[in-house]
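Researcher: For the record, we're logging two predictions in this thread. I'll number them. Prediction 1 follows.
Model: Prediction 1, sequence and structure:
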Amino acid sequence: MTHLRPIGTAKPPSRAAQCALGLLCRHGRGVPQDDGEAATWYRKAADQGSATGQFALGLMYRYGNGVPRDLGVAASWYRKAADQGHVMAMGYLGLMYFQGRGVPKNLVQAYMWSTLASRTESIAGTLAMKTCDMLAKEMTATQISEAHKLVYDWVPKTTMGEA
């Protein structure tokens, strides 16, 4: 059951508003706490190309909050957000490739996504840098070179605005 919805002929909420509604439902701020409802709002935003909504929905699937736990689906949503430059999604995706969770283990992809995430001055960037250090110990020079080429060639995909 949807607790939050536009009244009458009101314009549908924007992607940013949909993400905000998902967050409110997820944490029970001003509405009853409801992970299923949160996932519904995140999906609405994600389906419209919101990297924030895609990442949040990926988290819901990763932990099984309001949706069945499915690491493959989580990785798919992280990838969509990461492709748009969402730093936390890049970091999570890098870890998933490193651990082979939800995706086949792939050190080159893990290093690529972790390197991209590490380029920011944030907690996610710092954690991604540590992941790169761990990965480098397990990789050959050829694999690292291949990952660096992927990083160099990577260009974020864009959608109309962000939310």
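Researcher: Logged. Prediction 2.
Model: Prediction 2, sequence and structure:
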Amino acid sequence: MIEISDRVAAGSVLVVDDDDSVRLVTSRILTRFGFDVIDVASGRAGLDVLQDSARVVSAVVLDWSMPGMTGAETLCAIRSLDEDMSIIVLTGWSLSIEEELPEIAGPIPVLQKPFDPMELIELVRGTDPQT
């Protein structure tokens, strides 16, 4: 059982995933650990959040395989907005997507779905400059 004292208030995390159930579970996990979560169902919506100057996002949890704007396209667009944005990729496919990561991306942590909630929390904490 996770106690309230285990929570870490750590800033906003943007969750981008077209799968409603994955997005909901991911958001709940992050919220339970004290993160302010903004969740959206598409890469385009994620970019809109990042371009909104009123929203401060410290990390993005990004689904790799989405209809419309793919994870790779979204990642490139995020990097063009903020080259230092911390990004964690979620995938239900192969862990070897590193080959598909654009060179511009730099080192990106990749989590295989279904993922261990504590691994997600550790990665987000590690990417958050306020922790």
